[in-house]
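The aim of this short unit is practical: by the end, you should be able to scan a pair of folded records and say something sensible about each. We start with the first protein, listed as its amino acid sequence and then its C-alpha cells.
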Amino acid sequence: MKQIGTPQDEMSFLDHLEDLRWHLIRATLAVVIAGSIAFLAKGFIFDILLFGPSKGSFFSYDILCRISSALGIDGGFCFDEMPFRIQSRTMGGQFSAHVWTSITAGFIIAFPYVIYEFWKFVSPAMHNNERKYAKGFIFISSLLFFTGVIFGYYVVTPLSINFLGKYQVSETVFNDFDLSSYIGLVRASVLASGLIFELPILIYFLTRIGIVTPAFLKKYRKYALVLVLILSAIITPPDIVSQIIVAIPVLVLYEVSILISKVIYKQEQRKLKRQGYEK
C-alpha cells in the first residue's frame, strides 16, 4: 500500500491486491526459510520438543504433581511413564509429519516477520503518529503470540495428553496413537493458544475502526465468560480443573482488552472532536 495523498497517488483495488501479494510472498518465504532450518533440526524438534510432553519426566508434570499433592488432589499427574505408544501406520507418515511439523515450527519462528509484513501493508492507511508505533506493535504482538505458544506447550498440551493418553473405555483396549493424531493435538494446542493470546491486538484494531467499544465489551462480559469456558472445553480435556487453568489467562486477556479499547476509544473521540472544531 502507498500513502494516500493526491488523486494520482491513490492506488486502485488491483494495486492493493498486487501489493498484498508481495507481502504474502515475502512472509511465506520467511516461513519456508525458518521451516527449512527446523527441518534440519529433526532430533531437537521431535525428540526434545514434540515428544517431550509424552514422557513422565516432562517439566509440567512435575509442577502439576507438586501442586496437586500440596492441594490434596489426586489429579493423576504423578507418574513415571505414559500408558500409550506412538506409531506411524502409513509409508509416508513419518516424512509427512516431518515436513508439516517443520512448516508449523517455521511459522512460529518467523511470526515476528509475518507481523512485520502485515504492518507494512496496513500502515500506509494510518496517520504518521500511528506509524511511529510500528516497533512497539511488532514487539507486543510477537510477545503475546510466543507467550501463548509457551502456555499452549507447557500447560494445554500436557493437560490434554495426560487426560487423553490415560483415558480407557476398557482395560482390553490399549492406546496406540497414530503419529499424525499426536502431532495434530500438540500443533492445535500450541497454535490455538498463540492466536488466542492475540486477543488484545484484535480488540485494538476493532476499536480503531469503530466496530467495538469499551461499553460493548463490558456489556457482553458475561457472554464472553461463557464463550471462554466453551473455548477452554474445546482445547482442553473435559475436566473442570483443566478448563479453569486455561480459562483464567484468557479472561485476564479479555479484561486487558477492555482497558486497551477504552484508551483507543478515548483517543478516537478526541480526534473526532478536533476535526469538528477545525471544520
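Turning to the second protein, read its sequence before its C-alpha cells, just as you did above.
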Amino acid sequence: MGGEGPPLLLLHGCPQTHVMWHKLAPELAKTYTVVASDLRGYGDSSKPQGLPDHANYAFREMASDQLAVMKSFGFDRFYAIGHDRGARVLHRMALDHPQALEKLCLLDILPTGFLYAQTDKNFASRYWEWFFFIQESDFPETLLAANPLAFLRYEIGDLVDAGSITQPAWQEYLRVLSHKDAMHGMCEDYRAGVSIDLQQDEADSGKRIECPLLVLWATQNPIWLQFDMLDVWRGFARNVQGAAMPSGHYMAEEIPEKVLNKVLPFLGERRP
C-alpha cells in the first residue's frame, strides 16, 4: 500500500503476485492510494485446502477477500485494475458488489464462461492451464510442485530473457511458487473456474457491469484475433471502452508506459 489520493486496488494474475505491478504502482501512487494484494491461493496469501465444490476458491470468495482488504483501510468504494485471474475476480466483484467500484480496468481477458463456450483446438492448446490445472487433486499439483522452476520458465521465461520481467520479480515469483501449498492454491482457482464460477455466472447471466469499464487486450495473444473484443464486452457491461495493446499477455511488465497512457486518462475522467 502506498501513495495518496482516491483508493485504487490492483489484482494480479497467474502465475504472479502483486509484484507484477512494480512498474506501474509508483506512477499510479502519485495520484492514487494504491493497494496491491495477493489473491487467495497465490503469493503470500493463505492457501486453504480446497473444498469438494471448490467454493472457497470461487471468484466470489476471492472478491469478498479483496473487499475486506479495502474496508480494513476504510475504503468502501474504489477504483480497480485487474490482470488475468485478478481481472476475473474483479468481474465477479462488479456483479456482486456494484456499489464498491468507481471504475474498472481489466487486462487481457474475456469472460470465463464465454471462452469455455468457444473452446476449440487453438484455445485448448494455448490455454492449456484451463484444462490441466482442473484435473483431480493432487495429480497436477504433484507434477507442478516437482519442478516449479521448469513451470515458471515455460510460462514467463522468455520475458525474463528479454528483460521485460526483472530478475527481482522473477525470484519473487519463483519463491512463492515453491511454497508447499502454492500449486494446490493455483489449481483450486482453476477448478473453481470451471465449476462453481460457471454456475454462479449462469445464475447472474442477466447482470451487467454497471461502472465504467476499460478493457485492454494484447495483440500478441492470437486467441483475441477471433473476436471483436469490445463487442463481446458490451454484452457484459453497460459502459465499455478499450484498446488493443502491442504486447504479449503480461502487458503491465512488457509495456508499462503504454498501459499507463491508457489507464490514467480513463481513471481520471469524471462522470457526467
